[in-house]
Structure formats: C-alpha cells, structure tokens
Automatic annotation (TrEMBL):
Catalyzes the ATP-dependent amination of UTP to CTP with either L-glutamine or ammonia as the source of nitrogen. Constitutes the rate-limiting enzyme in the synthesis of cytosine nucleotides. SUPFAM superfamilies: Class I glutamine amidotransferase-like (SSF52317), P-loop containing nucleoside triphosphate hydrolases (SSF52540). HAMAP family: PyrG. GO terms for molecular function: ATP binding; CTP synthase activity; identical protein binding. This is CTP synthase. It comes from Certhia brachydactyla (short-toed tree-creeper).
Length: 563
C-alpha cells in the first residue's frame, strides 16, 4: 500500500480536496486502484448536524454516512463509492479510544494523545485503506489522505504527529507528502509573494514532515523565477514545485498536474509499476475539459433555496447540473435565488430584492428546489413551485422540494388551504407530509432515513423511468425525516399528480410526476450524490433536457444523447 498525504498551509479552503481528487484521478488513469480518506479535525462525530454555512453541504454515502463534501469530490473524480469510515474526525477517534478505555483495553495505563490517539489514527488509516471502493471489489493500491485545515492549527496537531510517526512505519518508498500552499499577489505591487509558502513549509518541517511536492495555488499562472525561489528556500528540487492557478473548470486540474510531470515523479518516488504516459481515462478528461471551455449555448436554471450565500451549500446539486449540461453540450447558468426573497413579506420590507428575485425566476429556463430543513423560506419555495406548475416551466424538486410540491398541489389544486407538513405545522388538519415512523426525536445525529435505498417504479408510463433506461427499480441515496402521507395519495392521483415510484414495501412515496406538463418531477431521494462527470444523474439530465426543449427528442431516440 502506498500512502499520499495532502496537507495545506496559509489558509483553509485552498483547494486541497480538488488537488487530492486530481492526484487520485491521474494515478487511476495509470491503471492503479485508488481510495481516499478525509481527516476533519473538528470534534463532531460526523458532519450530519452542521449548518451548510459551517462547512458547505453534508454529503451522504451509500452506507448512510454523513460526511464532508470533499468525499463527494473524491467519488466524482475517481468514480468510486466510499464509506463513512473514509471520513475521520477528532470526535470519532476520541470516541473510539474512550470506548476502548472503558472496556479496559489499556490495562490500567494512562491514556494519552501520544501514543494512544496517534496510534488509533494510524490504525484507522491502515485498516480503511484496504477496503475496496471499486465495483470489482479489489483491494486498493494507493490511498490519498487529505488532512483538513492548515498546518499549525491546534486541533490538527495529533494528526500531524500521527503521520510523523507513520512515515517511518510505512517506509519512505510507501509514503509521500504533498503540501498545498498559497502564493498571493497583492494588487498594490502585482508581485507574487513566496513568504507565506516559505513559512508554511518551515512550520510543517518543524512538526516533523518534509514535503515531497509543494503545490502552489495562485490566481494567475506563476512565473519561473517564483518557482526557483520556492525551490531554493523550501529545500526541494524545482520539479517538486507544482503550480495550479485558477482555471475555468476543475476538470482542468488533473491535466495541469500531468503536464508538470507528476506521473514521472510518483513513478520514481513511490516505485510505482506504471508507464510514464497516462491511459485513455486522462484523455477523456482532456476532451471533457476542452469541450467544457468551448460551450456556446447557455441553459439557465434557477436554484431556489435558503443557503444561497455560499455556493458550497449546494455543491453536489451544482455538479449534477453541470454534468447534465455538459452531456447535452450546454453551458450552465445557475442562478441562486434566496427563497425568502420571493415571499410577500420581502416585498413590504425590500421591494427591490423581491422584484429582482422574481425577475431571475421568470427568466430561468428551468426551476430546481433542493433539499433542506426548517420552515424559513418555505413560502418562497411554494411560490416558485406554483409558478413552475402553472407556467409549465420545467421543474425538479429534491427531497424537501418534492414534499413542498405536494403541499403546493394540495393547497392550489385540491383546495386544501391548510395543507402542510407536520415539520412546519404539527397540528395541521391536512398533514400531506408526515414524519417517518422510525424517526427518533431524541438525539439529532443519525436519526434520519439515510443511505442507499431501492425505489421501485409502479408504472411503465413514467418519464423518469425512461430516463433511467427503463429499469424496474433504481437505488439512490436518501437523507430525510419526513415522508408524503400514503393515506392521502389517492386524492392527488385523481387530479393528475402521479406517485410513480415507491419503496420496496410500497408505503413510502419516492417519485412524483405531474400529467400534462413538460417536466414536473419530484424525488424523495438525492440523485445528485451519485452523479458523475461522465455519467450524469437522470433526474437532473431530464431537467436540463426539458429546459432546453430537447427532452422529447431524447426519449424518442431511446435515451441516447446526440453526438
């Protein structure tokens, strides 16, 4: 097993996740089996109870793990399926060690950060690195490990110490450290500054880790003189300094790394049994990146949610839309609309914001209402859904978006004015959305219906079934507490809102489709989590096809994309 540790310096959010994913993609293109681990030094057990404004979206895995969004990057780039234990947190490690101490596993010894916490980290990494993540179920050969935060953070210290020890346990030819740093360019001088990188590498060395590669992030391409300066002051060869500037799409990053000789370096440094040239997989990435940059036709989608100030809150949704747009040769114009700004109360408080939000919604080619929790902004989402339904605008509702589509239909088509979800009004007379029977209202963490579940189509006359390749069932990832009330579904079906997909027992409503509408679809699951750059998610692809007016032609071709 070869281990590649990716650390970061200067600032967090520098792009370590994309660089770690890109390195994995390059090694996979050389024919190696690659897995990935993300270490988050926070004390939470997992990401499940975070607000999206804390660390971006919560990504859900097949096994129901609620994890950091970087695991989504790994899955998309490497086309693998990870597990909850591929996300290590301080909380998980301490819980593991404390449980062992309570069981008496330490035989009365004083339990300390060194060696007990650091040993637990190393043991976890070695065990998880062996778990197969590809469809062929073979043990991986390379494990890319990303250490969250920046070098010098107090909460990350035990992990840095663990890897300082681990480099000797694994042996030099099996362990490599990549340090990602920032090269800022102040507007006042326009000069690219290397001092932050020098200080960051010095801090890393002071903690016992020496970088094998220094990846320098910058806004613009870095000059050769800067590369030579970093090489000299950071005690590495010039070819060990890699530059990654801001690019038009993240698909470019693996190509930039490969162009700077990273395959040859890894082959020598880790004694890898590979050719110097990448395979067809990286050629596909190159073609995809070039195609992305040459797109001319634009499709605009309005994303109506309440976490719109930070794009990472809907990272997987954005990627799923982007994958679908790229598949049909369109450039995606994603317009984020804060759902509260569509509400009547905003018109009274700030009429400019209100009219701007409605202007965006009206000019969009399609409307998407993603998942979420809580009552804030729901009235605005209901307004957007009503607009999509009545104006025949292509619409996709995901999780809460589907539930609100049912509420909107109940209020405006069934004339149940007080129809609501028990999440927002526990005493509603028409509870069209109810909480799940197995939901435990005690602890918040891990109380939802989570992970991959099967959805069975109950009719052949379904747009989504055709988009999924006419399969009898699909398996997608879930993350929700509330369900459409199965006792009331017959009322909706009589009026044209069809529940075309159920769970295996037939009790839980998974997919809705509206008759006599170009594309009005709701799904209880989160299809964005399984979207891949070369395998777009069918519900999102359907939305883009409908928004560009090409859905019927696509279905008539037998769900084949035109060249």
């Amino acid at each position: 097993m070869k281990y590649i540790l990716v650390t970061g310096g200067v600032i967090s959010g520098i792009g370590k996740g994309i660089i770690a994913s890109s390195i994995g993609t390059i090694l996979k293109s050389c024919g190696l089996r690659v897995t990935a681990i993300k270490i988050d030094p926070y004390i939470n057990i997992d990401a499940g109870t975070f607000s999206p404004y804390e660390h971006g979206e919560v990504f859900v895995l097949n096994d129901g793990g609620e994890v950091d969004l970087d695991l989504g990057n790994y899955e998309r780039f490497l086309d693998i399926n990870l597990y909850k234990d591929n996300n290590i947190t301080t909380g998980k490690i301490y819980q593991h060690v404390i449980n062992k101490e309570r069981h008496g596993d330490y035989l009365g010894k004083t339990v300390q950060v060194v060696p007990h916490i650091t040993d637990a980290v190393q043991e976890w990494v070695m065990n998880q690195a062996k778990v197969p993540v590809d469809d062929d179920k073979k043990e991986p050969q390379i494990c890319v490990i990303e250490l969250g935060g920046t070098i010098g953070d107090i909460e990350g210290m035990p992990f840095v110490e663990a890897f300082r020890q681990f480099q000797f346990k694994a042996k030099r030819e099996n362990f490599c450290n990549i340090h990602v740093s920032l090269v800022p360019q102040p507007n006042a001088t326009g000069e690219q500054k290397t001092k932050p990188t020098q200080n960051s590498v010095r801090a890393l060395r002071g903690l016992g880790l020496s970088p094998d590669l220094i990846v320098c992030r910058s806004a613009k391409p870095i000059e050769m003189a800067v590369k030579e300066k970093i090489s000299m002051f950071c005690h590495v060869e010039p070819e060990q300094v890699i530059f990654i500037h801001d690019v038009s799409s993240t698909y470019r990053v693996p190509i930039l790394l490969e162009e700077q000789g990273i395959i040859k370096y890894f082959k020598q440094r880790l004694n890898l049994p590979i050719d110097d040239q990448p395979s067809d997989l990286l050629m596909k990435w190159k073609k995809m990146a070039c195609r992305y940059e040459r797109l001319l036709k634009v499709c605009s989608i309005a994303l109506v949610g309440k976490y719109t100030k930070l794009s990472d809150c809907y990272a997987s949704v954005f990627k799923a839309l982007e994958h679908s747009a790229l598949a049909i040769n369109y450039k995606l114009d994603l317009m984020y609309i804060d759902s509260t700004e569509l509400e009547r109360s905003t018109e009274a408080e700030n009429s400019v914001k209100y009219h701007q939000a409605w202007h965006k919604l009206c000019k969009a080619d399609g409307i998407l209402v993603p998942g979420g929790f809580g009552i804030r902004g729901t009235e605005g989402k209901l307004q957007a859904i009503s607009w999509a339904r009545t104006k025949k605008k292509p619409f996709l509702g995901v999780c809460l978006g589907m539930q609100l589509a049912v509420v909107e239909f109940a209020r405006n088509c069934l004339n149940w004015e007080d129809a609501n979800s028990t999440e927002f009004d526990p005493d509603t007379k028409k509870p069209v959305v109810i909480d799940m029977p197995e939901h435990n209202p005690g602890d918040m963490g891990g109380t939802m219906r989570l992970g991959k579940r099967r959805t069975v189509f109950k009719t052949e006359n379904s747009v989504l079934r055709k988009l999924y390749g006419d399969e009898m069932f699909v398996e997608e990832r879930h993350r929700h507490r509330y369900e459409v009330n199965p006792e009331l579904t017959h009322c909706f079906e009589e009026k044209g809102l069809k529940f075309v997909g159920h769970d295996t027992e037939g009790n839980r409503m998974e997919i809705i489709e509206l008759e006599n509408h170009p594309y009005f679809v709701g799904v209880q699951f989160h299809p964005e989590f399984s979207s891949r750059p070369m395998k777009p998610s069918p519900p999102y692809l359907g939305l883009l096809l409908a928004a560009t007016g090409t859905l019927n032609a696509y279905l008539q071709r037998g769900c084949k994309l035109s060249p």
